[in-house]
Amino acid sequence: MKILNGKDPANTNFIENLWIKKYKGEDIIVTNFGLASSMYSTFDCSGKSITINDQDFFDSLSEDVLIYKKSNRIIIDFHVNN
Length: 82
Hints:
Elements: E1 2-5, E2 17-23, E3 26-32, E4 41-43, E5 49-50, H1 55-59, E6 66-69, E7 74-77
Antiparallel strand pairs: 1-7, 2-3, 2-6, 3-4, 4-5
């Protein structure tokens, strides 16, 4: 996974927070984009979008598993380097 600086702020997704947390034995990447809603996006470590319908999982996100908190504008490019 690479975090890249956004070049065009008008066309960039802004990530508010980024967590990595285990779910059913797998590391899951969780993002929220700082929108008015509390919607999350979830990905496996290969960058594939996955659906988690477990509110307890999202309620358990904490500073302990937080790996990024918004300080500037970024976009994320999920690619596995082989």
